[in-house]
Amino acid sequence: MGIKEIIGCYSVLFLLIIVDADGVWSISKEEDMELEKQLKILNKPAVKTIRTDSDQIFDCVDIHKQPSLDHPLLKNHKVRTTFDDFSETMKDRPLKGKGLSGFGVRCPIGTVPIRRVEKEDLIRAKAFSKLHMKTYAKNSHPLADAPIHLSAKLAANDKSVYGVAGILNVYQPTLLSPDQVSGSIIYLSTGFGEPFKSVISVGWAVMPPVYRDNFTHLFAYWTADNGKTSGCYDILCPGFVIQSPEFALGRKFPGSTYRGSQVDFNVRIFKDTKSGDWYLWVNGVSVGYWPKEIFNGVFEFAKEVNWGGEIFSPRQPCPPMGSGHFDGERIGGACYISGMQYQIAPAGKFVDIDPALKAVVDSPQCYKASMPSNEGTGYTFLFGGPGGQC
Ligand SMILES: *[C@@H]1O[C@H](CO)[C@@H](O)[C@H](O)[C@H]1NC(C)=O
């Protein structure tokens, strides 16, 4: 995409245009000032700094001084550090993920890991979410140059959902250009139209617009207005309150090997009905929560839930999804989400999904998906494909 097109589509007077090896990202002057402020918030004094063996830097920050507490609606928020309330909900939670031992960050107790970011990370993430938003505009008014956003997912849109779970098989798809994204996610939203469409999504993705590399990262995204003004990936903006000293958002993850060793991790997102906050557990560890305040108190339950693969590309051809192979290759060849469950009563038990849920595939010549199959450990959904001209 050229500079002219970007100026045209955002129609703002002052643009800061960042041109680097990976392309062009732009934000307005006002946004630039906002990001300066955000960067200050993110750079809290560290008790300890950890450089991982995959060369990422995490600052261990006092749990009670973490950046999210700078959110204007969290001024008097006291970080919740006990999890006793969930013992009932979590009782039958399955196992840990495969192949991810040693992927913790291990900050000292009482501190939480914050991925070190530079201003350019914030600029790119901001510009990317605006570009991403454009795909949604496409649905109402088709634009010839709108970016492409395709998925192969299993969707539940007719229930009130208080929790979702799944075990996500991880791959590292090879993108065709650094402005593409490919990943696997669990997504939930209020399903309202704007301005109060709240969304939480968690998964893995190769996402150079946000992480500036071609590796797979664990990510968590939220917004309270469908991406218009609020929300971000991980903790690039205040919002998600981290509890775990070792499970870091934005962490690089190894991918599975096609027909070889498999890597997966277990995600559980659920509403604590006592506090009203939405919790994120990964591999049985409480990573943290989205306080109800950040959703303006209107994220009561989810009405739109889905599990599966997603790609984003500003143009054709499109990148691979999942392992890059179709669902017919089954576990080991195709990417999966297994152990799919949801919670359809407040504070109720997690139950297996309804196997009659519908798979939605946007571009069947590029990506495919199977109906959920019972592999003995709950329901498994297989999806993915090579991409191309979609
Ligand atoms: C990531 O992959 C793309 C496409 O193959 C390449 O153009 C880009 O230089 C790579 N980026 C990094 C940081 O290695």
From TrEMBL:
<keyword id="KW-0732">Signal</keyword>
<dbReference type="InterPro" id="IPR025521">
    <property type="entry name" value="Neprosin_propep"/>
</dbReference>
<feature type="signal peptide">
    <location>
        <begin position="1"/>
        <end position="21"/>
    </location>
</feature>
<dbReference type="InterPro" id="IPR053168">
    <property type="entry name" value="Glutamic_endopeptidase"/>
</dbReference>
<feature type="domain" description="Neprosin PEP catalytic">
    <location>
        <begin position="142"/>
        <end position="390"/>
    </location>
</feature>
<protein>
    <recommendedName>
        <fullName>Neprosin PEP catalytic domain-containing protein</fullName>
    </recommendedName>
</protein>
<dbReference type="Pfam" id="PF03080">
    <property type="entry name" value="Neprosin"/>
</dbReference>
<dbReference type="InterPro" id="IPR004314">
    <property type="entry name" value="Neprosin"/>
</dbReference>
<dbReference type="Pfam" id="PF14365">
    <property type="entry name" value="Neprosin_AP"/>
</dbReference>
